[in-house]
Specification:
Elements: E1 6-7, E2 10-11, H1 18-24, H2 31-38, H3 47-56, H4 61-66, H5 74-83, H6 105-120, H7 128-138, H8 141-150, H9 154-169, H10 192-208, H11 215-223, H12 229-235, H13 241-253, H14 275-290, H15 298-316, H16 322-334, H17 352-362, H18 367-382, E3 392-397, H19 404-415, E4 422-426, H20 436-440, H21 453-460, E5 465-469, H22 476-488, E6 490-492, E7 498-500, E8 505-510, H23 514-523, H24 534-548, E9 561-564, H25 570-592, E10 595-598, H26 600-617, H27 621-638, E11 650-655, E12 661-665
Parallel strand pairs: 3-8, 3-9, 4-5, 5-8, 10-11
Antiparallel strand pairs: 1-2, 6-7, 11-12
Length: 667
């Protein structure tokens, strides 16, 4: 086969498929191209003549992207392009036939590029998408600027290019192991966001107690993702997706009395996944491959659903929202792919010994609390489930700043391998009965639907630490919800699903009893160091205070460990001061090149100040003492007029009379 498509003898039509041949003129090769050029005073066939020919023909990619939009037609398109282009400088007659001599250099370059694209993708013939893609590659700046202006912006033009490439690729073969031997989706073919769609879909199916996964279940999951293509595409049309669409679908699928399925439910081809859902996933794989990606992302799953099951979405919209469907289809076609599919970071895996060591290193002065927590961590790590209960339920009580919240955060970091595996709920925001909708959400059709912080958190993080901070501030109604959650590990989402917390560690913290503790320590200073009797006394005081606030006595029966965090000793305050100092001095050294030497006496003075504040401030007194004694004075000294241009490289912190810390340059 000749390497040239256009020669002195004419256009070689055998290089084009039948559809493209008909577009450019098959009986008289290239006659339709020549006809386009003859309308304008040009002596040679130009790229834009080919563009007009491709755009006039219905069914081509150019017609679909450039004309099939509201208010657009071919005459307006030709006028827009011609109006911004320079005319041909030749004075002769327009060409009568399409030959090498009558074509511009850009046309010859386009045809050569089209054949290169055909070869790159191992296709037998050139189709209209290949030719259009080659045209974009060969167009000069003026023509590209006109196209960009016609398509409104550069992003649309890039989306057009991506779609052309997808059409060039054509059908993509589905790998034999796209589903594992047991029928489950092979996650190696899914990106981070694609895996999340599968996990969310499985969680939604289990929570609804359904036996089969239908396209409606998949749509429920996709609509619930506020960053997903379908959700965004409808939202930009002014549709409240959560209340107008997602809620209606939830009502359809909720079956009163249906229980949550067991946690071993799997998405399985030929068993739980209906063929229509399998088809969406396979089409999503083809979508990913056509855009040059090896893995399926949520972008591809959303796009595949819109392309093959738009009727499911149309059914949920009201009659007046009919135009939204066409807009959604256009948006999905032109939207940029997700940019959040970076490599998924593996969770850290710590041994029990490493967990213990890290907790003791990071939580100062609460060795007993850690020792009572670790056995439950061991059970969870060993893989011994508790039937129908959370992995552990703790009540942490004690004065503010003693490390209760910090221990919960460290459990998330070291037990579950990621500090983000924490569902943090500040209970002060749930003081009223009305705040329940913010806690667990509201039923479909009511304000607060889908906004439950606890239920949404469990959906996204079924294995995590759930921290209810300062529970004494919550309303009695919230206590009632917590009662069942702590007892069964399940929580009813008013939106329909039942959320699972049996893989969670539940931590409740309270400052109840702090006022009693402060009064007792002032009256009996020796009680502060009584680590044997003080925990029980503090628990009794906290129990009485909680009861006054409506905290049910039987709730403590659901708690596995009531752990008292005791006031700090001077030694503990000194340890915390040293840790804080280590961080602050490193900043001065690394960022400013300044060494600060702090004497042992100065450290003891700061520890004493932190200890004096610890009943009211807990561990927070240490950084405040360091800031007052070292950080602020150091900054003041270094910004004095005599040191601004030539600051000292070393400072010395020592103690003067009356336990005053003096910071001076080491000259």
């Amino acid at each position: 086969m000749s390497t040239e498509i256009l020669t002195s003898s004419g256009l070689d039509m055998s290089r084009f498929d039948k559809i493209l041949g008909a577009v450019v003129g098959a009986e008289n090769p290239g006659s339709k191209i020549v006809a386009e050029g003859s309308v304008f005073p040009r002596t040679k066939v130009q790229l834009r003549d080919w563009l007009y020919c491709l755009t006039r023909a219905t069914g081509t990619a150019c017609h679909e992207w450039l004309i099939d939009r509201p208010g657009q037609d071919i005459d307006a398109f030709v006028e827009a392009i011609e109006g911004g282009m320079d005319e041909d400088d030749g004075d002769g007659m327009p060409p009568m036939a399409l030959k090498k001599e009558t074509a511009s250099a850009d046309v010859l370059s386009m045809l050569q590029r089209a054949d290169q694209i055909r070869q790159e993708h191992n296709q037998p013939l050139i189709n209209d998408a290949m030719l259009a893609l080659a045209l974009l590659d060969s167009a000069d700046e003026d023509l590209m600027a006109m196209l960009e202006a016609w398509m409104v912006d550069e992003d649309q033009l890039e989306a057009f290019r991506r779609d052309l490439l997808a059409r060039v690729v054509g059908e993509v073969e589905i790998p034999e192991d796209f589903f594992e031997e047991d029928g489950t989706p092979n996650e190696r073919y899914y990106s981070v966001s694609g895996k999340k769609v599968l996990r969310d879909l499985r969680e939604d199916i289990v929570s609804f107690g359904a036996k089969k996964v239908t396209t409606r279940h998949l749509l429920f999951t996709l609509l619930g993702d506020e960053a997903g293509l379908i959700h965004v595409g409808l939202a930009i049309r002014g549709i409240n997706v959560k209340t107008e669409v997602h809620a209606g679908l939830s009502r359809e699928m909720t079956r009163p009395g249906r229980k949550r399925k067991k946690g071993d439910f799997q998405l399985t081809k030929g068993d739980t996944l209906l063929d229509s859902v399998v088809d969406v996933l396979e089409q999503a794989y083809q979508s990913a491959r056509r855009r040059g990606e090896e893995q399926v992302g949520r972008f591809d799953i959303n796009r595949s659903f819109v392309e093959h099951h738009i009727g499911e979405i149309r059914r949920l919209l009201s009659a007046e929202d009919g135009a939204a469907i066409a807009a959604l289809q256009q948006y999905v076609k032109t939207a940029d792919p997700d940019d959040d599919d970076e490599e998924e970071s593996p969770l850290e895996r710590y041994t029990i010994k490493e967990i213990e060591d890290q907790l003791h290193r990071r939580i100062c002065g609460q060795e007993t609390a850690i020792e009572r927590t670790v056995p439950w961590v061991k059970r969870l790590r060993f893989g011994l489930p508790r039937d129908g209960r959370p992995a552990a339920v703790f009540l942490f009580l004690g004065p503010t700043g003693a490390g209760k919240t910090q221990l919960a955060k460290e459990l998330a970091r070291f037990v579950f391998g990621d500090p983000d595996k924490l569902i943090f709920l500040e209970m002060g925001q749930f003081k009223t009965k009305e705040s329940m909708s913010a806690f667990i959400g509201a039923p479909p059709g009511y304000v607060g639907y889908g906004e439950g912080l606890l239920t949404n958190g469990l959906k996204d993080k079924p294995e995590s630490v759930v921290l209810f901070d300062e529970i004494e501030k919550a309303s009695v109604e919230v206590f009632d919800v917590l009662l069942r959650f702590a007892d069964e590990g399940m929580i009813n989402d008013p939106a329909g699903p039942v959320r699972d917390g049996t893989q969670c560690v539940i931590v409740m913290t309270t400052n109840a009893g702090q006022a009693w503790l402060r009064e007792e320590v002032i009256a009996n200073p020796e009680l502060r160091g009584d680590t044997e009797s003080l925990p029980e006394l503090l628990l009794d005081a906290a129990r009485k205070e909680l009861a006054e606030k409506g905290f049910r006595p039987e709730f403590l029966g659901r708690v596995d460990e009531c752990i008292s965090f005791l006031p700090f000793s001077v030694a503990t305050c000194r340890k915390i001061v040293d840790l804080v100092l280590e961080g602050e001095l490193k900043k001065f050294r690394d960022l400013k090149g300044i060494e600060i030497e702090v004497s042992e006496e100065a450290r003891d003075v700061m520890a004493a100040k932190a200890y004096a504040r610890s009943m009211d401030e807990g561990a927070r007194g240490a950084p405040r003492a360091v800031n007052e004694a070292i950080v602020t004075p150091a900054i003041d000294l270094l910004t004095r007029e005599e040191h601004e241009l030539n600051p000292p490289k070393q400072l010395i912190a020592s103690v003067a009379d009356r336990d005053q810390i003096i910071l001076e340059p080491n000259e």
